[in-house]
Specification:
Elements: E1 14-19, E2 23-28, E3 40-45, H1 47-57, E4 62-65, E5 67-69, H2 72-82, E6 92-94, E7 101-104, E8 116-119, H3 135-139, E9 141-147, H4 155-164, E10 173-177, H5 191-200, E11 204-208, H6 218-224, E12 230-234, E13 239-247, E14 253-261, E15 264-265, H7 273-286, H8 291-306, H9 318-325, H10 329-334, E16 336-337, H11 341-353
Parallel strand pairs: 1-4, 1-9, 2-7, 5-6, 9-10, 10-11, 11-12, 15-16
Antiparallel strand pairs: 2-3, 7-8, 12-13, 13-14
The structure holds adenosine-5'-diphosphate (ADP) and magnesium ion.
């Protein structure tokens, strides 16, 4: 006779857990005013799940933790994100609240101006809380990736973010992309202030210069946010600067600063570049690469997304990205990447095999 012991519910440790809301996105079949668009194509949107999908595509183990409705849109998100190889077993279904959706008009190429109509208030994901999310599944990771979108969703989501950015023994490396979306915050909630406080609790922070509390350049941002071991200030098409706190053999603390110019890219669509940058940087972090290389991998992965129409692209193959990341500064500075660049190398190799 065998006696069954209690089933272990300890989830597998993965490289990365990304937590946040994802939505079904509807992209217009024709350009023009939202009022005039007759039909839409379906896609998926979600800053954190984008990061999980790119990391899974880059060969890491990734888990997405979220809440979706018990509806067809929820099925689609779970299935589509799962199809990237992301573990979706900790995504909860909410029987009472719907999956969030949004509609977008085609962006104007020159200005990237587009209209967005969100239907996310009261969504299943906005009901995420400390009580109803699987904290073990969230913490069983080497890196936990979060963003400043989640705390804007509800008071419960903000509490969850405070818990996840609190210094608990044995917590994963906490990565936080500020992603300040003023439209999601009520003015009286002072989103910028809340995001700065949450960022103080993270180990790695990504922030765009244009959303960095009106502080100006990277040095000023670091002065206002000295706590994270690593702070990355993104300067769009110009480049990115990282500040890393290091401890010398004598125990003295120092700050290592690395600045890497962005690549020259023939941009097809700008959406999703920030998520791709974070994924590239985190992938290189998981591989233990030095900060300068992590920045280069961030730029390269962003360039993969910038050169496709959607907001999610397969990252460059690891060998290819490693070769480009190892270029000297002059060669890096003259590199120019356009649509199809991630496959260029594969095609060249195929031509060698089948002349
Ligand atoms: N025009 C561009 N040319 C080259 N790289 C770019 C360009 N725009 C963005 N990037 C890359 O994408 C990264 C993220 O850009 P950012 O504007 O911060 O994105 P987001 O606003 O989505 O957070 C940059 O750090 C850079 O690597
Ligand atoms: Mg961003």
């Amino acid at each position: 006779m065998t006696v069954e012991g209690p089933r272990s519910t300890t989830p597998d440790v993965v490289d990365v857990v990304a937590l946040g809301e994802s939505m079904v996105t509807f992209l217009p079949s024709v350009p023009g005013r939202l009022a005039d668009v007759p039909s839409f194509d379906r896609a998926i949107g979600g800053a954190e799940s984008n990061v999980a999908c790119v990391l899974a595509a880059a060969g890491h183990t990734a888990r997405w933790v979220s809440r979706v409705g018990a509806d067809g849109f929820g099925d689609h998100l779970v299935e589509a994100i799962g199809a990237y190889g992301v573990d979706v077993s900790a995504v909860r279904r909410d029987p009472d609240r719907p999956t969030g959706v949004y509609f977008r008009t085609a962006g104007d190429r020159a200005t990237d101006a587009h209209e967005v109509a969100y239907y996310r208030a009261g969504s299943a994901a906005s009901a995420m809380s400390v009580r109803n999310t699987d904290l073990d599944a969230i913490r069983s990771a080497r890196v936990l990736h979060l963003s400043g979108i989640t705390p804007a969703l509800s008071a419960d989501c903000l509490d969850l973010m405070r818990e996840l950015t609190a210094h608990r023994p044995g917590r994963p490396l906490v990565s936080f992309d500020v992603n300040h979306r003023p439209g999601l915050w009520r003015e009286e909630d002072d989103g910028a202030r809340v995001l700065l406080d949450l960022a103080r609790g993270a180990d790695i922070v990504f922030v765009g210069e244009d959303e960095a509390w009106g502080l100006g350049g990277p040095e000023a941002v670091r002065a206002a946010l000295p706590e994270p071991e690593l702070l990355v200030v993104k300067q769009g098409a110009a480049g990115a600067t990282a500040f890393q706190r290091t401890v010398g053999a004598d125990g003295a603390e120092a700050t290592h600063v690395a600045s890497v110019p962005a690549l020259t890219v023939d941009v097809v669509a700008a959406v999703g570049a920030g998520d791709a940058f974070a994924a590239g940087f985190l992938s290189a972090t998981l591989r233990g690469l030095p900060v300068r290389e992590r920045l280069r991998h961030g730029h390269l992965t962003a360039a993969a997304t910038l050169t496709v129409p959607g907001d999610l692209a397969a990252p460059p193959a690891r060998d290819h990205a490693d070769r480009l990341a190892a270029l000297d500064d002059d060669a890096w500075g003259t590199l120019r990447l356009g649509p199809g660049w991630t496959q260029a190398e594969e095609r060249a190799e195929e031509e060698v095999r089948t002349p």
